């Protein structure tokens, strides 16, 4: 995220489920990292381009997520460039999910 020009303040916390609940991230969208930017939750290994798009489009949503830890997502690069297809999902304020981007 820093390489994409974002200012990052990292806080290592022992438990994220309370923060996820507070910001509307449902269990099925959870991953290993929870970020907050511009009033949105950003969950997991979300590409910087998706965060930029989220901020540009400013949908009425809780945030975006890459559930799990798919190989090939930012920070989860596989050996020899191995990648698996994955999606960034938009988290609606009611907790429902829809595809935001395909990778």
The radius of gyration over CA amounts to 13 Å
Tell how many strands the DSSP assignment holds: 5
Category from helices, strands and their pairing: alpha+beta
Pattern of helices and strands: HEEHEEE
Q: How far apart are the termini?
A: 17 Å
Weakly predicted, low-confidence segments: none
Strand fraction equals 15-25%
How can the largest sheet be summarized?
5 strands, mixed
**Broad shape:** globular
Describe this structure in words.
- With 103 residues, this protein is an alpha+beta fold.
- Helix content is 16%, strand content 23%.
- The chain has a 5-stranded mixed beta sheet, with helices on one face.
- A hairpin with a 2-residue loop joins strand 1 and strand 2 (40-44).
- The longest helix is centred in the middle third of the chain and has 10 residues, at 48-57.
- The protein is globular, with a radius of gyration of 13 Å.
Topology:
Layout: H1 17-22, E1 34-37, E2 40-44, H2 48-57, E3 63-66, E4 87-91, E5 97-102
Parallel strand pairs: 2-3
Antiparallel strand pairs: 1-2, 3-4, 4-5
Provide a brief overview of the structure:
This protein is of the alpha+beta class and 103 residues long. The chain has helices at 17-22, 48-57; strands at residues 34-37, 40-44, 63-66, 87-91, 97-102.
Task: Give a quick set of tags describing it.
single chain; 103 residues; alpha+beta; five-stranded mixed β-sheet; 16% helix; globular
């Amino acid at each position: 995220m820093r390489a994409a020009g974002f200012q990052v303040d990292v806080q290592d916390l022992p438990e994220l489920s309370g923060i996820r609940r507070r910001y509307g991230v449902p269990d099925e969208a959870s991953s290993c990292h929870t970020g907050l930017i511009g009033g949105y939750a950003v969950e997991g290994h979300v590409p910087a381009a998706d965060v930029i798009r989220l901020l540009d489009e400013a949908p009425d949503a809780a945030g975006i997520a890459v559930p799990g830890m798919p190989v090939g997502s930012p920070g989860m690069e596989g050996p020899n460039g191995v990648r698996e297809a994955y999606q960034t999902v938009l988290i609606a304020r009611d907790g429902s999910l829809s595809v935001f981007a395909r990778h």
